[in-house]
Amino acid sequence: MPATFTRHQVETERKDTGIGGKPPVDRRPTGGGGGGDDDWENRPSGRRGPRELLSRYRLGILFALAGDLMFFIALVSAFFVRQSAGHFDARENYISDWHPLSIPPILWINTAILLLSGLTMEIARRQLFHEIDVMEEWLGLGRPAVKRAAPWMIATCVLGVLFLAGQWIAWQQLAAQGLFFSTNPNSHFFYLITGAHGIHLILGIFALLFALGAMFLLRRMEMRQIAVDCTAWYWHTMGIFWLFLFVLLVFFQ
Amino acid sequence: MKQARTAASDTERGFLRRWIFTADHHAIAVQYFLLALAAVAVGTLLSLLMRVHRVWPDTPLPFFGLVKPEDYLALVTMHGTLMIFFVLTVVPQSAFPNLVLTRQIGASQMAFPRLNAAAFWITAASLLVLLSAFFVPGGAPISGWANYPPLSAVPAAGPGQATGMDLWLVSIGLFCIAAILAAVNFLVTILTERCAGMTWSRLPLTVWSWLVTSILTLLAFSVLIAAVVLLLCDRHFGTSFFVPMGDFVNGRVVGHGDGSPLLWLHLFWFFGHPEVYISILPGMGLASSLIANFTRRPVPGYRLMASALVLIGLLGLMVWGHHMFVSGMNPYAGAAFALTTMAIAVPSSAEVLTWLAMLFRGRMQRTTSMLFMLGFLSFFIAGGLSGPILAQPDLDGYLHNTFFVVAHFHLVMAMAGVFSIFAGIYYWFPLMTGRLMNETLGKAHFWISLIAAYGTFFPMHFAGLAGEPRHYERLTGPAHSFAALLPLERGITCAALLLAAAQLIFLWNLLQSARRGRPAGANPWKATTLEWAPARAARITHGPYEYGFRSSESDFISQWEAEAEWE
């Protein structure tokens, strides 16, 4: 069964049969302590039903991204520790080798591009869950959802490449000023953070291309949804990470 | 996915497809066990070389020749890395869950079988990269398993610090990726693949412990990757994250920025301390299950035990600073870390006291796995009691660089961890082979190991209190203030040799029992948890530890047993 028809098993049970039968019974857990819903046996363990696979993959990608978040948190805390590191010279003067960096203005444009790509990605993702299209695809009457989503996916891809190109230009601009990876602690972090994020984005673009191919090649509608959905969550997360990293690089010099 | 599922059930396939290139969690568990066995063999050999060298420093050793001081440090580094990553992490956190996790929650399959297989192969690659460090020019790295900069950041700092150190970093980076992939798989499996009726309060405590350790793995290993990346940048791209200004190594000034070695310590121990819990929490979960099984008593305070596991995991993320009391960290931070460290003794004591309460006047069956579990308990208490001592910054200042710390963590982490692993292997061996391990050999293995392990690690407390430093390669030489400790050291070395020899009994037992051990039957330990169920249960209605019903013919209700009609 395609994933959008039923949100929850309870929903089907609640539906009016339309033949004047008994009114539907609300079997949703009320959360109260009245004993009506504390029958542990009726609680599903994990999600069963049409969205089972989707939620499994979603959960997987979200856990992996939680680990990734810790990776970036470690880099950011290293940024702050390194910023406050210094030493005293022979005359008891505190010396810090941290020189604030003027961020190339193109980063603002890059950020806007990345935000835009998040938007196109989300539009693409929603096409795969558009109920009527999904139903047609599931019945094998063509691939309207895929056809609608593909241009948005390609747009996301193009925007992602544009963002990476913009980051590359920013690196070139810094290098033209004589600021390289090893120049000073601040440039270490600028290159490291943008580089680490850029590698993640390159992986994201590969994931997008994979999802794009998967949409046309995979036979199960469900798997097509999963490919696009997981890529979208990854892409959004990278966008959010970038927002924070951008704020860090611009305002916490 | 579909392919993996059929591969699991299809036994007609060839050896390669069935045991090597497989996504079947059962085969992957066996692969992990073999990998850990190889690692533990090498690691033990290295530790024996170290022990022998300490007491006879001028005698050439077999396979090795004369041990130079830097060779000794390389042995220390590789011993620690092999044991901590490839034995004490791989077995409890990868091999055991692959063997029993899906069965215990009534799932047919892991959530991501191929991810799981990929994790194994990356782990194997990581082990090969690590071992290859022995054979590159300069040999293995010498800066200890924690690899503090600036020594680890400067290739000129020692013979193994060039290529050897790079290999170490690459190996650990790979290991982190593998551990994270495996943890994602376990977490999703536990959250989504439980069978009907397997509610949170019916999960065996081992599953609870894997849930906690998987979360810890996710959070801690990611930070280690970041640390490894930063250190590689320092080594190869001329950055200055960790090397302090004016740092003077091997006659050369190498520091060109205000890098902070403390930063590495923070990042490393933010990983390193949760790592301790990653290797010991599954043992604690297993202890609850096994003690319940062999005393035929339910686990009292199931919810308390589960929440204590979670609490230990949470607190375990907040105590990393207690490894750094003597590192020049802010003393106020030291006080805070001392507090959180002592707080962790509370849930740990709750666990220990519950186990003791279960043992108290219980009808205990002294099977080999139960004996090893008692050994775990004994080491956990003996090593744990020196924990609050070392958690005091003042006392730690004196003891930190002495053998007292070596004694502490070898008892509470290494020996307790290894004994819980042995308990698990003796207990779950029938799942792998359908046969029981030999009890007589097992008991001989246990008693010799127990006595030899105490003989090895307990006297180290006294050596440490006498001030014996833990990073020196010899006690004699120009300064022989510690020569008086040599007799004690000799005793320790003899006990260590005995401890290693006792493991030969285990190996023999393993080989013999795998081929012609006693057939185990369906449920040899009369256990309640689902890994012993004859068939996959569609729906379960019972808790994990329903023992001690003496009125009926069997004194337990297994989880897969159908609910009685009248209920």
Please tell me about this protein's structure.
The complex is a heterodimer of chains A (253) and B (567). Chain A is mainly α and 253 residues long. Chain A has a single domain (52-80, 103-251), classed as Cytochrome c oxidase, subunit III, four-helix bundle (Four Helix Bundle (Hemerythrin (Met), subunit A), Up-down Bundle). Chain A contains 7 helices and 2 strands; from the N terminus they run ααββααααα. Chain A has a two-stranded antiparallel sheet with strand order 1-2. In chain A, strand 1 and strand 2 (94-95) form a beta hairpin. In chain A, helix 2 packs antiparallel against helix 6 and helix 2 packs parallel to helix 7 (221-251). Chain B is mainly alpha-helical and 567 residues long. Chain B has a single domain (2-557), classed as Cytochrome C Oxidase, Chain A. Chain B contains 18 helices and 4 strands. Chain B has helices at 2-9, 15-20, 25-55, 69-87, 90-104, 113-132, 163-192, 205-236, 261-295, 302-316, 331-359, 368-385, 387-390, 393-399, 403-433, 439-457, 459-465, 486-516; strands at 248-249, 252-253, 546-547, 556-557. In chain B, the strands form 2 sheets. Chain B has a two-stranded antiparallel ribbon. A two-stranded antiparallel sheet of chain B has the order 3-4. In chain B, strand 1 (248-249) and strand 2 (252-253) form a beta hairpin. In chain B, helix 5 (90-104) crosses helix 9. Mean pLDDT of chain B is 90; it is low at 1-10. The chains are: A mainly alpha (253), B mainly alpha (567). Chains A and B meet through helix 2 and helix 6 of A and helix 7, helix 8 and helix 9 of B.
Features:
heterodimer, A: 253 residues, mainly alpha, Four Helix Bundle (Hemerythrin (Met), subunit A), two-stranded antiparallel sheet, 7 helices, 2 strands, B: 567 residues, Cytochrome C Oxidase, Chain A, 18 helices, 4 strands, globular
